[in-house]
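Sat 14:20. Reprocessing the chain from the morning session after the first attempt stalled halfway. Input below, unchanged.
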Amino acid sequence: MSVPEQLRYTEEHEWIADHDAEDGVVTVGITAYAADALGDIVYVSLPEEGADVSAGEPCGEAESTKSVSDVYAPVTGEVTAVNAAVIDDPSVINTDPYGEGWLFKVRTTGDHDGLLDAGAYSKLIEEHDQ
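Finished this time. Tokens:
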């Protein structure tokens, strides 16, 4: 299972990329592990641009042919962009969860405490699979 080193992760299987963080904006998505566990994603509901999200709180849903799962905000802040491509074609999340399958962007307020690095997240998913 792919766990990119440059990302940070939540225990709920979201990731953030802070490559745009000079303006406080991070990109959010769900991990390949989560996408695989869900199966074929057929619908996604995301927060609207301008909405405030709080770290650890549900802010959307991903629905598959198997189940519905909450999408949690990994950080607190204001949503600055939503990926319309995944709303139009949610299967992109399954095929490219760390690239074209990103979900939304957040201008963060506060720090990113509590996020896992790639090593800690890899250990977490290993424990889930045992």
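The two ends are 15 Å apart (CA to CA).
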